[in-house]
Amino acid sequence: MFDSPVVRVRVPASTANLGPGFDTLGMALNLYAWIEMKQSDETRFHLYGDQLKGIPGDKFNLIYEVAQMVFNEAGVSVPELEVSMYSDIPLTRGLGSSASAIVGALAAANALIGSPLSDAKLFDMATVIEKHPDNVGASLYGGIITAVWDGVHAQCIRLDPGDHLEALVVIPGFELATSKARGVLPAEFSLQDAVYNISRSSLLVAALAVGNLEVIAEAMKDRIHQPYRAALVPGMAEILKEAPRHGALGAALSGAGPTLLALVDRREQRKAELERFLKETMQRESVPIRMMWLKPEAQGVKVYTDAESGRSFLDMIKGESVL
Ligand code: HSE
């Protein structure tokens, strides 16, 4: 029925919103998940790494469910799959782990049956599953994306992240469900707050497009979601306000949180000062954290063409993962 008996993909993490671009802006990051998929006589999962502990290893696994959506859409039947997965993307922390799983599963399943579905179709499907296009768009296309969704179709423009951006992420030692972080948001906003966000989100996209990093601090301000979510993440309000004074271009809650993200110019001299400020602020709030320097990832989901080169799944990802 189809040629490729084994498919492997690598899919990047992502940060959504970048402050004002709620459910609109996304940026891929150089932290990844990998999936191997093949047809099998019986469904089996091999889940590797600390990030996947507790994930179901049966047909209730999101990867399996999403793969079946691809097969249904393409009109083919592949009821049993053998799936291996390894991920460095922390779960439920605001770094797009569910979006990466969805995009990885869509891309792997599509490649397994000879890629009948276009990227645009995969983007539509991913957005319907995730309910917003920001993280899935970034994981699918890489770079920085500005996206819209009408409930059925998603569209986006991808910007190249350029050479100068880095991100220092502060990952708190607790999980925050997206549903909880969305539950605290009001249903309506004042015209003033709408204008505040539209103007800054537009400025941010223009600044990133032309590489004008000077306006980023102002352009990353937001009144639509972060003020309401600040109560869920101790230290967040101070970090968003003060990080630009310690060497950040600007700072935001990463997606629905609880991770905080400072955008930094790679040439910045005060990186150690910024690290110290972030660490001490979270320490004062008694929140254990992990900090990581990440880079924007220009490449979206990558389908390996040499999946049958003889290397095992885990051998293939060594060197790129934290394995
Ligand atoms: N834009 C979404 C939110 C991202 O902020 O709720 C969540 O993954």
From TrEMBL:
Localization, UniProt: Cytoplasm
Enzyme class of the recorded protein, top EC level: transferase
EC number: 2.7.1.39
Molecular function via GO: homoserine kinase activity
GHMP kinase N-terminal domain sequence ranges: 61-143
Domain GHMP kinase C-terminal span(s) in chain numbering: 205-277
Domain of life: Bacteria
Pfam families: GHMP_kinases_C, GHMP_kinases_N
Binding positions for ATP per the UniProt entry: 90-100
Catalytic activity: L-homoserine + ATP = O-phospho-L-homoserine + ADP + H(+)
Keyword tags: Amino-acid biosynthesis, ATP-binding, Cytoplasm, Kinase, Nucleotide-binding, Threonine biosynthesis, Transferase
SUPFAM superfamilies per the UniProt record, alphabetical: GHMP Kinase, C-terminal domain, Ribosomal protein S5 domain 2-like
Entry-linked Gene3D superfamilies: 3.30.230.10, GHMP kinase, C-terminal domain
Main location per the UniProt record: cytoplasm
Pathway noted in the entry: Amino-acid biosynthesis; L-threonine biosynthesis; L-threonine from L-aspartate: step 4/5
Biological role: Catalyzes the ATP-dependent phosphorylation of L-homoserine to L-homoserine phosphate.
Family stated for the protein in its record: Belongs to the GHMP kinase family. Homoserine kinase subfamily.
Full protein name: Homoserine kinase
